[in-house]
Amino acid sequence: MSFLCQGHRWLSTAAKYNIVNRLQQISPTTSACMMAHDTQKHDSNSTNVLHSLAAGAIAGALAKSTIAPLDRTKINFQISQEPYSGRAAFKFLSDTYAKDGFIWLWRGNTATMTRIIPYAAIQFTAFEQWRKLLEVDSLNTKNNGGLKFLSGSLAGVTSQTLTYPLDLARARMAVSTKNDYKSLGDVFKKTYKVEGIKGFYRGYVPTILGIIPYAGTSFFTYGSLKSFMKENHGYENTVVNLACGAVAGMAGQSSSYPLDIIRRKMQTSIITGINYTNLRTTFIMIYKTEGIRQGFFKGLSMNWIKGPIATGISFATYDFVRKTLKNI
User: Which member of 65, 169, 227, 252 lies 3.0 to 4.6 Å from 218 by CB, making a disulfide possible if both were Cys?
Assistant: First the structure.
């Protein structure tokens, strides 16, 4: 009996030894596989981020350069008290061309590129990352329309916050003359000298309040229309993406235009000489001097032209370039 008990203990010890030994043999392999998987996942995410940054930068630069003269015209009317009309806008463009030449229609576009390239790169990349974080495409996520809107809004806030001083400089160059600012660097130098650091964030609050509905609506509308066309009609190409982006641009612009008026007036107040100090004061001053229609919706019809063009080009270019980079 004692012999049997000792044999049983010996077998148990041997079994335990074999199990431990087996685990020690398997463990390094399993660990290596897990490490390789994690590294591959990290590399894949890093590559996707780089693709998004590059595609976003190209998309933003192409879109903004295309509509730069219209954008400059819109800003000019937004900050002035002159009534807007299609004829007045055309006159501004023709007068600028006659007085300063064709290239002058793109005045301030260097500042625009300095701002829009990092802005668009950050916005599209942030959107992809927010989508992952919020698990927008997860199978467990139902009715994800709200999350799509939230992802777009957060992407807009992220990119706008990081590049806002460049946006302010671009607006000031667009409505100024050579005597006001000689270059982009001159804008920063004079802004800091006269207004300090706070001067670079004049108009920031209405900008953020405006970018939330604008970016949210744009990304949500584009994504929804793109999915609808693919799932119901089987269409997925650059032309379809351009059309979806155009509709998204019109929806986004309409949802936030009054706040765009307010931020432009605050950004350029040092040039116009009108002291728009904060959101509330600016709102009241615009309402009293220009009314609702001419005050808060001045130039909206031009935005319905340039907005869809720019947004359509931006979204379509981003998808095309990102897809191309993935296939390289």
Answer: 252
Q: How far apart are CA 117 and CA 83, in angstroms?
A: 32
How many angstroms separate the Cα of 262 from the Cα of each of 19, 20, 23, 203? 72, 71, 67, 8
pLDDT 10s digits, 110-167: 878 888 999 999 999 999 999 999 988 775 656 678 889 999 999 999 999 999 998 8
Rounded distance, CA 250 to CA 312, Å? 10
109-133 vs 2-66: helix crossing angle, rounded to 10: 150
Q: How far apart are CA 100 and CA 84, in angstroms?
A: 22
**Residue 207 and residue 306: Cα distance in Å, rounded?**
19
Question: What are the C-alpha distances in Å from 63 to residues 70, 83, 109, 181, 318?
Answer: 12, 27, 12, 25, 10
Picking from 182, 127, 181, the residue whose alpha carbon sits closest to that of residue 150 is 127
Say which residue the tokens 């040092």 belong to: 270
Tell me if 316 sits within 8 A of 242, measured CB to CB: yes
Summarize pLDDT for 9-33 with one digit per residue, the tens: 443 444 444 544 544 554 455 444 4
Q: How many CB atoms lie within 10 A of CB 40?
A: 10
Best CA proximity match to 253, nearest among 87, 35, 71: 71
Binning pLDDT at 50, 70 and 90, where does residue 4 land?
very low
Q: What is the pLDDT of residues 83-113, one digit of tens each?
A: 777 788 888 888 888 888 888 888 878 878 8
